[in-house]
Design goal:
This is Pimeloyl-ACP methyl ester carboxylesterase. One of its GO terms (molecular function) is hydrolase activity. It holds the Pfam family Abhydrolase_1. This protein is an alpha/beta fold and about 325 residues long. It has two domains: about 10-135 and about 255-330, Alpha/Beta hydrolase fold, catalytic domain (Rossmann fold, 3-Layer(aba) Sandwich), CATH 3.40.50.1820; about 140-250, no CATH class. About 35% of the residues lie in helices and about 15% in strands. It has 13 helices and eight strands. It has helices at about 45-55, 80-95, 105-115, 140-150, 155, 165-170, 170-180, 210-215, 230-240, 245-250, 255-260, 310-315, 315-330, and strands at about 10, 15-20, 30-35, 60, 100-105, 120-130, 270-275, 300-305. The chain has an eight-stranded mixed β-sheet, with helices on both faces. Helix 1 links the parallel strand 3 and strand 4. Helix 6 packs parallel to helix 8 and helix 7 packs across helix 9 (about 230-240). The two termini are about 30 Å apart. Residues about 190-205 have low confidence and may be disordered.
Length: about 325
């Protein structure tokens, strides 16, 4: 049986946001858990229970475009100003002045932006797999195109025809079968390979996730699933209902976010923790090298043997680290 608190709703920043809350409401500062792509608040189910059981107030929203939360039509409604503004509005709804923001994958980009844009609402930040970096000197989408080519999924997501969305929307179960697996055992020479098992000739594509999923057959995938059948059904049912476009629209704002961040001071001036996953092929631990230059009060923690879905692959370890760090730094 999967344990989740009851779904609640908040009017925030022009949308209705679904969220889950557990733990004592007088605990401060509470912990806000922000999911990545393609995920939902349910991705934090293990941490919600563990933190609440430890006496910590915990809040996990379905973010804009996902799950029980509204999915506005305009692409620019998914930029970082909106995504961080949604979290401020959620704090306002719950009458919370400051919180610790924890983000995995895309949620990590959002939480590292919180102290840059809303410093007075942030007690601390935890990045799970996603590091904080100084602003790139050139448009990141052009960087991805240069480094990985036009087939790289983030570059493909910029295509206004939305072909990638259609591939995911027509193969929801296939997508979660493909994504939600542990990496194969790492080679001695470096991090785990990108998830290309079960793809035949398509495995030559570099991060071309739409084509990988279109060609994918779970029968031939040697990687171990990280979700039970019951857990997978939650993701599949949710994304069958919502589609993938809301989450992909976050990627369609990459250039806009980069352009509009030029005037920001990119130094994070709150207590921060970086949780890295040893075998994440897309966001390896090396991506966090040098973070101390822009995050002066930083601790790092390595989760060994984990791929990209760290809080679901190694839930007890991630929860224990969050609890230990929260208690040590905030009482």
């Amino acid at each position: 049986m999967i344990e989740m608190p009851p779904l609640q709703f908040a009017q925030t920043n022009g949308i209705r946001m679904g969220f889950y809350e557990a733990g004592p409401t007088d605990d401060r500062p509470p912990v806000v858990l922000c999911h990545g792509w393609p995920e939902i608040a349910f991705s934090w189910r293990h941490q919600i229970k563990a933190l609440a059981d430890a006496g910590i107030r915990v809040i996990a929203p379905d973010q804009r475009g996902y799950g029980a939360t509204d999915r506005p039509e305009p692409v620019e409604a998914y930029d970082l100003e909106h995504l961080t503004g949604d979290l401020v509005g959620l704090l306002d709804h719950l009458k919370i002045d400051k919180a610790i923001f924890v983000g995995h994958d895309w949620g990590g980009f959002v939480v590292w932006q919180m102290p840059l844009r809303h410093r007075d609402r942030v007690a601390g930040v935890v990045g799970v797999n996603t590091p904080h970096r100084p602003r790139s000197p050139i448009d990141p989408v052009e960087l991805f195109r240069e480094r990985f080519g036009n087939s790289m999924y983030i570059v493909q997501f910029q295509d206004p025809s939305r072909e990638a969305d259609k591939i995911f929307d027509s193969r929801v179960e296939q997508a979660f079968d493909f994504f939600m697996r542990q990496p194969l055992p790492r080679k001695d020479t470096g991090p785990a390979e990108p998830p290309t098992a079960g793809l035949g000739a398509s495995s030559k594509l570099n991060l071309a996730f739409p084509q990988m999923i279109a060609a994918y057959d779970a029968k031939y995938d040697p990687r171990k699933p990280i979700l039970s059948a019951e857990e997978k059904k939650v993701f599949v049912d949710t994304f069958t209902k919502t589609g993938f476009t809301g989450g992909i629209n976050w990627y369609r704002n990459w250039t806009r976010n980069w352009e509009r961040a030029e005037a920001l001071d990119h130094t994070v001036r709150v207590p921060s923790l970086m949780i890295m996953a040893e075998n994440d092929a897309v966001l390896p631990p090396s991506a966090a090298d040098g973070m101390e230059k822009v995050v002066p009060d930083l601790e790092k923690y390595l989760v060994r043997g984990s791929g990209h879905w760290t809080q679901q692959e190694k839930p007890e370890e991630v929860s224990a680290k969050l609890i230990e760090w929260r208690r040590r730094r905030f009482g």
